[in-house]
């Protein structure tokens, strides 16, 4: 029987060797070890092959026979249960009976014990555990179990199991080496694919960069660059400036005004609320192009704007990289355009400064001619003041100047617009033969468009515009500039900001600019002082009655209705006014003096009442 058994074991080992050498797949090798070991060991009804994990310092069940899936969650520490004891012993151990099995499994952790009992209905009657040794280290354990009380493992089984464990160690080592080589090959393949992708990105970027550079060198401008990006990528391309205004685009008909407005709002919000280099925008703006990317042009604090690209599908890395390269070219083009703008503005600004300084000489006349200004023409000046922080004011000013220049070009008007500190100075000239009504109409249209732009674009709360009078010849253009400046001074001094004031329409209020505040207050006190004092002491309502009477052109009935009193009451009050001021409202000279004082009073009322 012993010889027959030994011969059978030998035959079984040959079979095991053939099976294990038939594959290099690690999982197949592990399953084959388990299948062959259980099948050729007479007492074995089931078993588990554990592999040691150095990182976690635990034995992991990798293949089993007869056990349920609950076993897969077992994590045995070295020395824990029968398998852990064999791992530490580095030799094959037999647990001959249920008593020895129970003693060994009593070392299981609470969690592992629950999992073990969940994976098999009862403890084995006998078990054998053989460590798998490789280069002197234990890399796993083969555990076999007998669930028949009449079949126990015997010492002869140790030789067989040790021989299988040795072959298993060789097979696992080969499979592990093969797996490592496969992983190395996969890593190399990934690296190769990455290099190929990077080359694609580089090639595409270089191609686009080269073509964009050609457009720039030819002086084609921003619109040609945006159109090229649209053509080469098929994407919808928009260029926004630092204020979030769309200054160039190339898109199809699916973008109506509503969608463009929503896109603009999203761009403005994104630029204001995030320190962005690249950002995704809400997809619901245009269902045809749900993938929208915003790329910053420039870097803070010098942000020139943003390039917005919309696509029907997710934009791939190659195109995104190429678009980022395009942003560099666009930023250079925008810097160039800004430099040209600033150079022209500097020349125009020097001309305006010379006019303001009164430098009327041949050099100034020559500058005027270079600007296509007729020195003998009529001139009128506007000055705009924008109440915003410096950086935003600069951007808004540039927009206003560009808008003014566009209007000049469209209406064939000779004019210049320049920044002057926190203001925008606009000087326009018209031939002498042009009527005043035509000039006035052109001025009103320009002011209306400037105001409309400011409100629609939501650039701020206060835009004040002062307008000088029309003066003949370049020599008197300085006077119009001064008058426009006085209008702004008037608004600033008397709380009239965010308005349009024409010097011509100031009328009697010009006195506010031509006299000191003390002189004006002295005049009002001399004219209305007793009446002001009377109203403060008696609360007689005489001053409001006088104001209403003058405001309604001496119509007593209308004035009485305006202040909700009877006409007779108003007439009585006017009589008292004459008595207190010792004047006669029927006297034209005295009436003119009182009317002038009343016109000036609202602008100085607060200081008069405090004084």
TrEMBL record:
Domain of life: Bacteria
GAF domain sequence ranges: 25-182
SUPFAM superfamilies named among the record's database cross-references: GAF domain-like
Sections of the chain in a coiled coil: none
Gene3D superfamilies: 3.30.450.40, PucR C-terminal helix-turn-helix domain
PANTHER family: CARBOHYDRATE DIACID REGULATOR, DNA-BINDING TRANSCRIPTIONAL ACTIVATOR ADER
Protein family (similarity comment): Belongs to the CdaR family.
Protein name: GAF domain-containing protein
Organism: Rummeliibacillus stabekisii
């Amino acid at each position: 029987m012993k010889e027959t058994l030994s011969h059978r074991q030998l035959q079984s080992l040959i079979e095991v060797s053939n099976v294990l050498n038939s594959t290099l797949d690690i999982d197949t090798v592990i399953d084959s070890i388990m299948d062959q070991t259980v099948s050729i060991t007479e007492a074995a009804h089931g078993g588990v092959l554990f592999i040691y994990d150095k990182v976690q310092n635990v034995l992991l069940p990798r293949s089993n026979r007869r056990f349920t899936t609950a076993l897969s969650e077992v994590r045995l520490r070295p020395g824990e249960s029968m398998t852990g004891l064999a791992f530490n012993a580095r030799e094959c151990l037999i647990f001959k009976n249920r008593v020895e099995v129970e003693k060994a499994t009593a070392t299981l952790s609470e969690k592992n014990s629950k999992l073990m009992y969940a994976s098999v209905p009862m403890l084995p009657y006998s078990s054998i555990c053989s460590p798998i040794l490789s280069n002197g280290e234990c890399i796993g354990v083969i555990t076999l179990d007998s669930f028949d009380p009449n079949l126990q493992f015997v010492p002869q089984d140790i030789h067989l199991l040790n021989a299988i464990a040795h072959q298993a160690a060789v097979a696992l080592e080969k499979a592990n080496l093969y797996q490592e080589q496969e992983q190395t090959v996969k890593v190399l393949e990934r690296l190769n694919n990455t290099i190929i992708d990077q080359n694609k990105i580089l090639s595409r970027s270089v191609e686009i960069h080269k073509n964009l550079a050609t457009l720039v060198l030819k002086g084609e401008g921003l619109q040609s660059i945006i159109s090229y990006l649209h053509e080469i990528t098929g994407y919808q391309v928009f260029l926004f400036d630092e204020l979030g205004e769309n200054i160039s685009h190339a898109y199809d008909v699916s973008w109506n005004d509503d969608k463009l407005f929503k896109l603009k709002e999203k761009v403005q919000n994104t630029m204001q609320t995030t320190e962005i280099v690249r950002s995704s925008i809400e997809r619901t703006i245009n269902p045809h192009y749900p993938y929208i990317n915003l790329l910053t042009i420039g870097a803070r604090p010098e942000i020139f704007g943003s390039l917005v690209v919309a696509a029907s599908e997710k934009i791939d890395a190659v195109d995104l990289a190429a678009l980022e390269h395009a942003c560099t070219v666009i930023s250079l083009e925008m810097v160039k355009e800004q430099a040209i703008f600033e150079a022209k503005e500097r020349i125009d600004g020097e001309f305006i400064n010379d006019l303001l300084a009164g430098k009327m000489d041949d050099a100034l006349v020559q500058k005027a001619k270079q600007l296509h200004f007729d020195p003998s023409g009529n001139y009128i000046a506007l000055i705009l003041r924008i109440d915003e922080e410096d950086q935003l004011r600069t951007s808004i000013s540039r927009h206003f100047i560009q808008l003014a220049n566009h209007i000049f070009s469209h209406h064939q008007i000779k004019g210049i617009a320049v920044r002057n500190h926190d203001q925008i100075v606009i000087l326009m000239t018209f031939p002498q033969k042009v009527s005043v009504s035509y000039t006035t109409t052109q001025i009103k249209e320009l002011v209306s468009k400037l105001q409309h732009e400011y409100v629609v674009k939501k650039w701020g709360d206060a835009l004040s515009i002062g307008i000088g009078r029309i003066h003949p010849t370049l020599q008197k253009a300085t006077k119009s500039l001064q008058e426009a400046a006085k209008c702004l001074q008037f608004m600033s001094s008397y709380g009239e900001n965010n308005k349009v004031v024409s010097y011509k329409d100031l009328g009697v209020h010009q006195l506010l600019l031509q006299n000191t505040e003390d002189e004006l207050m002295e005049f009002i006190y001399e004219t209305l002082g007793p009446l002001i004092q009377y109203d403060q002491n008696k609360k007689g309502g005489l001053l409001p009655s006088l104001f209403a009477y003058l405001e309604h052109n001496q119509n007593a009935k209308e004035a009485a209705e305006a202040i909700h009193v009877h006409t007779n009451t108003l007439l009585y009050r006017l009589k008292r006014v004459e008595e207190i001021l010792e004047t006669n409202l029927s006297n034209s000279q005295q009436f003119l003096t009182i009317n002038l004082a009343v016109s000036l009073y609202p602008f100085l009322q607060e200081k008069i009442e405090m004084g």
